Amino acid sequence: MSFPITQISPLEFSNISTLVFEKAGINLTAEKKILVISRLQKLLKKYQLSSFTELYESVLNDKTGAILSDLINQITTNHTFFYREKEHFDHFTKVLLPELSKGFAISGSKEIRIWSAGCSSGEEPYMLVMLMLEFFGRQYAQLNAGILATDISENVLVAARKGVYQEDKLKYLPAYFRSKYFTKVDDSFYQIRDEVKQEVTFRRFNLLNDEFPFNKLFHHIFCRNVMIYFDMQTKRDLVAKFYNHLVPGGMLFIGHSESLNSISKEFRYTIPAGYSK
After folding, report:
1. Per DSSP, what are the bridge partners of residue 204?
2. Contacting residues for 80 by C-beta, under 8 A, at least 6 apart
3. Could you give the angle at which helices 97-107 and 123-136 cross, rounded to 10 degrees?
4. DSSP per-residue string spanning 185-242
5. pLDDT at residue 4 above 80?
6. C-beta atoms surrounding 61 within 10 Å
7. pLDDT at 2 exceeding the cut of 60
8. Which residue in 32, 126, 144, 196 has the most C-beta neighbors within 10 A?
């Protein structure tokens, strides 16, 4: 059974756009109007609302923040999968991990701090853990390593913590990784194994926060396909904070459809969509 599409008035679109920008920094221009209508239909049905005005008022009146989280999640829903933008993971394995390993001998430290900012349903941070496990082997257990994975949407974080994925999410993953780090649930789903899952700390975090509550600098930050939703000033502010929370030489990875041109002169272009401090 199909349901009629609820249309959105100019005032409703303005109210929701302003709300989303203030709460999440996402810039919903007029070109995104059709996207907003199509993606928020599910919320109208879920909460039994008849208009976008009712949805807007429900967000304002919801003290738990659950409806706002749902709204942000629908707006930012992005198709992701294991090994997406493989070139970044290759650079991580072939260049960055060897550099970190050499640094252990010089500094005596065996700490690796990596942040997956905008981690969505967890494919990116789990992929990074698998690559570290492969590179370091038995030595990994002696390291103070792991991934901080954050997202503004509690919905995707719940899915990420479960670590259960449809088979098509693994289609670009080498068979070796699939057999070693996943357990087949049924004909359609795979579960990430605990040895990988325990190495990722998932937290809800808004990248628009004025302060980043991190006591130590990160070696590398992945924030891919997130800033496409932000306006220029929001991008500049965020990239500056990333810069301040990276070690010298640390890399910031962004999406291949994104660029730091006109955003930051401090980062140095290293590889496509990869910049060094």
Report:
1. 151
2. 120, 121, 123, 124, 169, 225
3. 60
4. -SSSEEEE-HHHHTTEEEEE--TT-SS---SS-EEEEE-TT-GGGB-HHHHHHHHHHH
5. no
6. 8
7. no
8. 126
**Dist CA 18 CA 200 (whole Å):** 33
Digit-coded pLDDT (tens) for 228-257: 878 899 999 999 999 999 999 999 999 988
- The span from the CA of 112 to the CA of 142, in Å, is 11
Count CB neighbours of 71 within 10 A.
24
Name the percent of the chain lying above pLDDT 70: 97
d(CA 207, CA 126): 21
DSSP 168: G
Largest CA distance in the chain: 65
> Can you give the pTM of this predicted structure?
0.83
Could you read off the pLDDT of 60-100 as tens digits, one per residue?
998 877 888 788 878 776 668 899 899 999 999 999 999 99
Name the residue among 198, 200, 126, 223 with its Cα closest to residue 165: 126
What is the per-residue DSSP string for 100-144?
Answer: HHHHHHHH---B--EEEET-TTSHHHHHHHHHHHHHHGGGGGGSB
Q: Which residues of 210-236 are buried (b: 16+ CB within 10 A; e: fewer)?
A: eeeeeeeebbbbbbbbbbebbeeebbe
Q: Quote the CA–CA distance of 81 and 37 in Å, as a whole number.
A: 25
In eight-state DSSP terms, residue 95 is: I
Long-range CB contacts (within 8 A, 24+) of 185-191: 189/164, 189/165, 190/164, 190/165, 191/163, 191/164, 191/165
Amino acid in position 72: I
Per the structure block, which two tokens stand in for 236? 């500049």
Q: How many angstroms separate the CA atoms of 181 and 46, rounded?
A: 35
Give CA–CA dist 102/152, Å, rounded. Answer: 35
